[in-house]
Design a protein that fits this description.
This protein is an alpha/beta fold. The chain has nine helices and four strands. The chain has a four-stranded parallel sheet with strand order 1-2-3-4. Strand 2, helix 4 (about 70-75) and strand 3 form a beta-alpha-beta unit. It is globular, with a radius of gyration of 19 Å. The relative contact order is 0.11. The model is unreliable at about 175-190 (pLDDT under 50).
């Protein structure tokens, strides 16, 4: 939810005043907590993006840490189970290079941001388990997920261009020792 829309909404402002909230992001956290309670009543667990860390994420929610590798550690430190999906290594439709032969991508239009390129070495080298993070208990790394946002992959050929080199390391992604990790040279032999 875009905060400016809730700031301009008299209904949202009234709800924030009723709850004693001053930041619309905390209102989002309150709303997601209401939804998480409904899900829990049906034996389900909420999954939320890491935007809610520090903004009222339900305590038992699984967090999809997408904003960066630091968010994986932050979500684990906050006591959440986490799926690591940082855009800097796991967004498959960022360009692999700044080459002119790269198609338009989700990163197009963000020249000043940290939105690609994501070379294969970043995908293959990504270690989802942060150093010193808990490996057991309630706050655990559940795994990693590669994302392909299809608004810029309008054809099967475009999707294949982005996913084919990256699927093998994503499929093998798990907390592991460095010795068992894949490298770009061995991916097709081991996949």
């Amino acid at each position: 939810v875009r905060p400016d829309e809730w700031l301009a909404s008299p209904q949202a402002q009234a709800r924030m005043a009723e709850l004693g909230l001053v930041d619309p992001q905390h209102l989002v956290g309150w709303w997601i907590t209401q939804l998480a309670g409904h899900l829990a009543g049906h034996g389900r667990r909420a999954v939320v993006w890491d935007d809610l860390i520090g903004n009222g994420a339900p305590p038992d929610a699984v967090v999809m840490a997408w904003q960066g590798t630091d968010r994986v550690a932050e979500a684990l430190a906050a006591g959440h189970s986490v799926v690591a999906t940082p855009h800097t290594a796991m967004y498959l439709n960022y360009p692999a290079s700044n080459g002119l032969d790269e198609p338009l991508s989700i990163a197009t239009g963000y020249p000043d941001g940290d939105f690609g390129p994501t070379p294969l070495t970043a995908v293959y080298g990504y270690q989802p388990q942060p150093a010193g993070a808990p490996a057991t208990g309630d706050a655990v790394l559940l795994g990693a997920q590669g994302n392909l946002w299809t608004e810029d992959a309008r054809t099967p050929a475009r999707a294949a261009r982005w996913t084919t080199p990256s699927i093998p390391p994503d499929a093998k992604m798990r907390p592991s020792t460095a010795a068992s990790r894949m490298s770009p040279r061995t991916s097709w032999k081991r996949a």
